[in-house]
Amino acid sequence: MAKTLRTSGDYTVKAGAGYDSGSGSNTIQLDARYVRIPGDLTVAGTQTTVDSQTLTIEDQFIEVNRNNSTAGTEDSGILFNQGSSNNQLFYYDADQSEFVVGATTHDASVSAITNITPGKLRLADPTETDHAATKNYVDTQVGGGFSLKVAGDDSTQITVATGNTLQFTGGSNINTAGAEPDTITLNLDNDLTNITSITSDTSNGDLTLVTNGTGDVVIDDTLTFSGAASTPTATTVTKLYNKTPAGGGTGLYFINSQVSATEGELISKKKATALAIALG
Asked: Who has the most CB within 10 Å: 86, 153, 188, 224?
């Protein structure tokens, strides 16, 4: 038989002493298949345990760490009980201002996470520029036949796919500086081979070959001079260049301001012999 108890004011059910402070030992038990509370429910105790197998919540957002009033100082998140194994945790690390997924020896009673072993997070391949990237996506985008070994002892490698460009931007020469605060330095420990062209990247700029100490610049094969468009400006160094042969019969000219302000042509052996005969 249904029964309704109605009051015109507040209605209190007491079960033993100490109920006001939550220190009582008595229990109020509602023994029914369904318990429905049409109004709001406030639980003022320090622990709420839900033993149901399925929990359904209509709210769009769930708030944790409700009474926190200090900005950015308290860790908070969701802990997954794993029985005898370390618990798994997804939480916001307030000190580092970042979200963390991993295993911890803590239970849900702690107020700050002091030990965490980062765990794995499965994602789909990104479709937008602000999506997190998966390992497969990175391997696919940066993969290929070109391998660049990262400095370190763990043999980690980054590969660049065919058709992609690996570019170090920064300073001049072989050593280049990357974006601050990182620095990228390329050191050549071996001789350069299979080089067919070296070109200055500056318009009208010089290309300088400098030896170490008293060493010489050695050319083991033929040295070819292309035709000079005009006579170079005389300086205190000797400049060699090629032009149309004249009286010297070689077409190889030099100019040095300490010798003359005008160019001179190196004379061939044939021309020198002919001049020696002619001059007696």
From this structure: 86
The token duo for 81 is 């009980």
Q: For residues 6 and 11, give the distance between their C-alpha atoms in angstroms, rounded to a whole number.
A: 9
| Residue carrying structure tokens 């007491």 | 14
- State the first-to-last Cα distance of the chain, in angstroms, to the nearest integer: 150
- CA 190 to centroid of chain Cα atoms: 29
| 170, pLDDT greater than 50 | no
Judging by DSSP bridges, how do beta strands 252-256 and 239-242 pair with one another?
A: antiparallel
CA 114 to CA 125: how far, in whole Å? 32
- Please state the rounded mean pLDDT for residues 108-112: 89
Residues 232, 253: Cα–Cα separation, whole Å: 10
Give percent of the chain above pLDDT 90.
Answer: 38
Lowest mean pLDDT among 132-136, 146-150, 159-163, 195-199: 146-150
Cβ within 8 Å of residue 186, ≥6 positions away: 168, 174, 175, 176
The radius of gyration computed from the CA coordinates of the chain, to the nearest angstrom, equals 42
- In this prediction, residue 163 carries a pLDDT of 57
Q: Is the dihedral of CA 110, 112, 114, 116 positive or negative?
A: positive
